[in-house]
Amino acid sequence: MRGAHDARSLDFAPYPLRSFQGGPALDNFVVISGCSGGGKSALLAELGRRGHPIVEEPGRRIVKQELKTGGSALPWVDEVAFARRAIALALADRATASGLDGWVFFDRGLVDAAAGFQHLTGEQMLGALGQCHRYHRRVFLTPPWHEIYATDPERRHGFDVAAAEYSRLCEAYPLLGYEVLLLPKVDVMERADFVLRMLGEGP
User: Fold this and answer.
1) Domain locations in the chain?
2) What is the CA 41 to chain-centroid distance, rounded?
3) Which of 146, 103, 138, 129 has its CA nearest to residue 33?
């Protein structure tokens, strides 16, 4: 039940191998994506405080793990290995969260990971993978927000790289049949209100 995971993110296994076979379309799985540094994490934290299960960004978890263990699957070392890990982790996240009731909010997800891998390698996997593992039809994107953008030990790329990724996602999600809603540049509580209002009362 929703209350069992109030105000905290879920604990997911590291990087299990998953097949790319189709899974169910889970209408309670909601993706918050968009431009990095645009306030996604703050929004997810606010939704968690309101009692909704949240799934932390795969990329952030991978970077933390690789820095801790001295690994090389880092976006500034081996981008392709990083993207492969992100796909595996996004698939694992979906499986782990599949038994939860109510809205489950994802900080990025499988489409982001597959779009990144396809951009790096040219391997056309986004369409098949993105169609097999669906999220709620409405996806929320944070637009580029230069005034609040900042780097940190886990986000080392510049604003131009973040904006380019955002542009790719603005194309990828509609191509897969999702309705993209841009998050307004307002405070985090207003953003959370906006998300929940756009979703309605329940999945």
Assistant:
1) 2-11+20-199
2) 10
3) 138
pLDDT score for 17: 34
Q: Domain spanning 2-11+20-199: which CATH class is it, in words?
A: alpha beta
Q: Which amino acid is at 59?
A: G
Q: How far, in Å, CA of 138 to CA of 195, rounded?
A: 10
Complete DSSP assignment for 170-202: HHHHHHTTPEEEEPPSS-HHHHHHHHHHHH-S-
Amino acid at 64: K
- Which of the two residues, 131 and 55, has the higher pLDDT score? 55
* pLDDT range class, residue 163, cuts 50, 70, 90: confident
**Tokens matching residue 8:** 């905290």
The one-letter code for the residue type at 69 is T
Structure confidence at residue 99 as a pLDDT band (50, 70, 90): confident
DSSP secondary structure string for all residues of 33-53: EESTTSSHHHHHHHHHHTT--
